[in-house]
Amino acid sequence: MSNLLYGLTLFIVVALTLASPAGAQDAIATHPIQPAGYSSIKVFDRNGRFAGRILPEKRYWVPIDRIPAFLQKAVVAVEDARFYEHSGIDVRGIARALVKDVVKGRLAEGGSTITQQLIKNKYLSGEKSIERKLEEARLAMDYEKKYSKKQILEMYFNEIYYGRGAWGIAQAARVYFDKNPEELTEAECALLAGVPKNPGRYNPLGKAADVGRRRDVVLKRMTDLNMISARQKQKLRSQRVAVTPPDQASWYLAHIRNLLVERYGPQVIEAGGLEVTAAMDLNLQKLAEKTLREGVKRVSPDLQGALMSLDPATGDVLAAVGGVDFAKSSYDRAFLARRQPGSAIKPLIYAAALEKGITAASVWDDSPVAYVRGANQTWKPRNYGGEQYGELSLRKALAYSNNVITVKVLETIGVPYFVEIARNLGLSLRSPNDLSLALGTDEVTLRDLVSAYTPLANGGLRAEARTVLRIYDKRRRAWTDNPPAVTQAISPAAAYVTTQMLKDVMVYGTAKSLRKFSQARPAAGKTGTTDDYRDAWFIGYTPGVVTGIWVGHDKPRPGGKGFTGGTVAAPIWERFMGPALSGRPAADFARPETVVAVTVDPATGYRAAPECPEQREELFIAGTEPVAYCPAHGGELLMPESPDLPVPEGETREPAATDNPM
């Protein structure tokens, strides 16, 4: 207690002995002057719902004559009623505050003036000590010698913190009301005047009860000082103030911001004045953020993830989430991160094979094969777990995600051919000499991989991913439309047959956990897991929505046995797609006329003979269907559809980075 009394004595002595002459008129702005008439970039979803704003990163300075007189009075009333009378420190206020400190035995109340608060914000820490308070007082009185009251008040408004990342009145007016300071109403000013006391609690987006009580304190103080009448106080208390809601889609807004900068240059953000209609569905975006966050944390709190959902007909990005927590890490793993897709690449290889005349009924042998790398080294692709199935139809090979057969299929159609097909699908793959592409060793973004699946759901038509539908420039009063970009990537027949094959993935294949979902509505998809369980994928679709999930670590490392696309990513996909499709009809994929159905013996791939013990209907691109009956059960003997595949020599490729089929 003696230290506190000593500090009290010393503080008052300093206060009484240092006088403050009239301030000078030095230049005080430390940031660019805010342009008049600024308006932020507003983003709306495809249905016209407000999603958020894209605000400038720069801080701006507002001259005192552009700050409403009501706000100036309100701040003086509630923060420092004797502001225009004291010389930087208010001795009476200090004495009153320190008496309370003595009673409580600690520094509970500071009695700081506006000048002292300015000094503390600009130069000092928030530490509560006698030494820090003395330094604050000394600097405050120095400021009063150097600057006028008007300048000090201007600096205060431009330096003080208003919560929610808003430093200064320019940012505060923009963040909470989407206005310039000179446009603020008296009711809005009353709210902002109460914020500096506790920015986290009293900012206009805080709890309504807390914010309202603090506003009432401001208005009562103004009434007590005869700044406003009791009638004005009641009128301002009863006025409803519309506060601009916080952003509702941080990941999507960040992407649009980058897109605008890329298209128009960084100055577009500072200029503002745009209204952007996004392709986003705000309800789906919120669902996606919640589902991904909860789904990834169910596996491990250390993991990251991404989700992308498209309309396959237009390429509209209905939802895009680049991570589990934007506040902790804003890096966009949906649009920017490149990772190995593993077996999620296989449907594109099989679609290319169908275009080459290979059929879903063709039978392939997954016996081991070795490829010479050079320097007497060989690469031997293996199946997940090292198992062998023997002979499988192409349909089953895809459902089981058979690695060896996929490599043989890629070798048969030729890597250059597949790379060209992939380019048509929107994937730019590396050197056309590497069979390890069959196992998803090249890196892709989630956006590009999901886009590459859109032709499978859309009759072979590829729609480029689109996040912006149109932009309105308020200054020019002009619209800029961004129409869909759709091209034919593969034939409608190849897309349809591939999709029917991928339905089996969700029935008995690597995503059989989704069987119940696929029974409720037609759907298709593929899992992907990279080497050592580093990345888990699932890309699945219905006729109206294509959604992809990625889960993994930012710095790739094994996720542990069982960390597969089927067990990690597919359940997240289901938890998103269920609610996302609620209310939509369970429509099936449209079958083109160029697809024919033939009953075959799945063990041989030929037309089923009457004696065949197992028969099933298989789909074919017209002209590729078998014409002969099964030779194993009394039919005419014909050469097999799949050629014998010799082990090639002279291969010069790197070993696969992934062998997992999941």
Structural summary, described in words:
InterPro entries: Beta-lactam/transpept-like, Glyco_trans_51, Glycosyltr_51/Transpeptidase, Lysozyme-like_dom_sf, PBP_transglycosylase, PCN-bd_Tpept. Its main location: membrane. Residues 53-222 form the Glycosyl transferase family domain. Residues 640-662 are annotated as: Disordered. Keywords: Carboxypeptidase, Cell shape, Cell wall biogenesis/degradation, Glycosyltransferase, Hydrolase, Membrane, Multifunctional enzyme, Peptidoglycan synthesis, Protease, Signal, Transferase, Transmembrane, Transmembrane helix. The protein is of the alpha+beta class. The chain has three domains: 63-227, Biosynthetic peptidoglycan transglycosylase-like (Penicillin binding protein transpeptidase fold, Orthogonal Bundle), CATH 1.10.3810.10; 288-581, Beta-lactamase; 593-638, no CATH class. The protein has 22 helices and 18 strands. The protein has helices at residues 2-17, 69-79, 91-104, 114-123, 130-146, 149-159, 168-177, 186-193, 199-202, 208-224, 230-238, 250-264, 267-271, 282-299, 346-355, 394-399, 403-413, 415-424, 446-457, 492-505, 515-520, 565-581, and strands at residues 41-44, 50-54, 274-278, 304-310, 317-321, 363-365, 371-374, 377-379, 391-393, 461-463, 468-473, 478-481, 486-488, 524-529, 535-541, 546-552, 595-600, 616-621. The strands form six sheets. It has a five-stranded mixed β-sheet, covered by helices on one side. Strands 5-4-16-15-14 form a five-stranded antiparallel β-sheet, with helices on both faces. Helix 15 (346-355) crosses helix 20 (492-505). It is elongated and about 110 Å long. Mean pLDDT is 89; it is low at 15-25 and 638-662.
